[in-house]
Amino acid sequence: MLAAVVFLASGLSGGAGGSAAITRRGIVGAIGGMGVTSAFAPAARAGLLGPFPGTPPDDLGIRTDGSLKGCGPSPNCWSTSGDPKHKVAPFEYTKSTSTAKADLLAVLKAYPQAGIKTKDGGIIDGGGNKLLIPPPNSDGNYYYAQFTSKKFGFVDDVEFNVGGGKVAIRSASRQGDSDLGVNAARLSYIAQQLAAKGGWKTELGI
């Protein structure tokens, strides 16, 4: 069993001396293709197939114009900044900024640590989440959180900047290409929770 795990991990990372990135699609596809998903479940729970948190980005935060970072070419990112292919509409609010911030903070703090169920019945973010302290230059309007997948420990970085009746948004995976729809599902859940509080327009357009 251990030998099979080592073989799989080696193949997903490019083999000996390889440099290919480990991805959600790569791991799930490899395990599924081998027809041994149930056999690898104990190894995943034991951490033998992860975690794979990736390298924390060093270029997040608020830009000089109040926007957030855009997205690269991979489809595992959504942002209110950048090219149309990865762009989402900002959340909008018709209440005071302080109340809007309180709403957003409440939704982020209440995000289930056990993850949320998607439309197809799957669970995302089952590895938990944490809301980090905003940087000193945020004026208290910037929120940054990390969300982790359960089986393999992939980490996604999520940012919000509140002000002027709008909330800039960015949700992106650190590694790989496809995120299997995780970032879109997460933002949609947060949008629904904010809309339920009233005074919000949260149509992301994804």
Description:
- InterPro entries: DUF1499 (IPR010865).
- Residues 1-17 form the signal peptide.
- Keywords: Signal.
- Helices cover 29% and strands 19% of the residues.
- The chain is of the alpha+beta class and 206 residues long.
- The chain folds into two domains: 2-46, no CATH class; 77-201, TATA-Binding Protein (2-Layer Sandwich).
- The strands form two sheets. Strands 1, 2, 5, 6, 7, 8 and 9 form a seven-stranded antiparallel β-sheet that branches. A two-stranded antiparallel ribbon has the order 3-4.
- Strand 3 and strand 4 form a beta hairpin.
- Residues 1-20, 30-41 and 43-48 have low confidence and may be disordered.
Task: Briefly say what this structure is.
29% of the residues lie in helices and 19% in strands. It has 206 residues and is α+β, with helices and mostly antiparallel strands. Mean pLDDT is 82; it is low at 1-20, 30-41 and 43-48.
Q: How many E strands? A: 9
Count of spatially separate domains: 2
- The structure class reads alpha+beta
Give the CA-based shape. Answer: globular
Considering the chains and any ligands shown, give keywords for the structure.
5 helices, 206 residues, two-stranded antiparallel ribbon, 19% strand, DUF1499, globular, TATA-Binding Protein, 7-stranded antiparallel beta sheet, 2 domains, 29% helix, alpha+beta, single chain, signal
What is the secondary structure topology, with strand pairs?
Elements: H1 2-12, H2 24-34, H3 37-46, E1 77-79, E2 91-93, H4 97-110, E3 116-117, E4 123-124, E5 129-132, E6 142-148, E7 155-163, E8 166-173, H5 182-195, E9 200-201
Antiparallel strand pairs: 1-8, 2-8, 2-9, 3-4, 5-6, 6-7, 7-8
Keywords: Signal
Signal peptide: 1-17
InterPro entries: DUF1499
